[in-house]
Amino acid sequence: MSAKKDPSVWQGFKAFLMRGNVVDLAVAVVVGAAFTNIVNAVVKGVINPVVGAIGTQNLDHYSSCVSTTCKGDQGIQIMWGSVLGATLQFLITAAVVYFLMVLPMAKFLARQEARKKAREGTHEVIEVTELQVLKEIRDELVAQRGGGAQAEYERR
Q1: DSSP state of 146
Q2: Strands 77-78 and 64-65: what pairing?
Q3: What are the mean pLDDT values of the chain's consecutive 10-residue runs (156 residues total)?
Q4: Is the separation of the CB atoms in 39 and 31 below 8 Å?
Q5: Of 50, 82, 47, which is closest to residue 64 (Cα–Cα)?
Q6: SS3 77
Q7: CB atoms inside a 10 Å sphere around CB 85
């Protein structure tokens, strides 16, 4: 039998939890849940009153009747106001996430990448310059030795 032990279930679970993408996902869910409250407040406090200037403040009241009579709960109604409200909420959420989170982060990462490339470019230029200087020193030493050896040879 081998002396190796199979990893326990607890060790595997711990390794799973400590992976970066699981932690990132958990943070995203928590931030998303908190962000939902902000979006709901914007929709109820800003969007619904603007829509209310045209009609009712509650978009859920907008509907169309498909059957011949729609009184109360009777008849077939298409509640397109609810769909419109959910769509507006989604668009607002997407816009805020993009303009306040994604776009600034993309610009920040692009600036960091440009700085990194600039540093690497400077580093390469310095290395090339140092290499060139070392080659010139080598050539001078070879020329001096060669010249000195030639002069000594001629003296003999």
Answers
A1: H
A2: antiparallel
A3: 67 78 80 81 76 70 77 77 82 80 89 87 68 86 74 48
A4: no
A5: 82
A6: strand
A7: 20
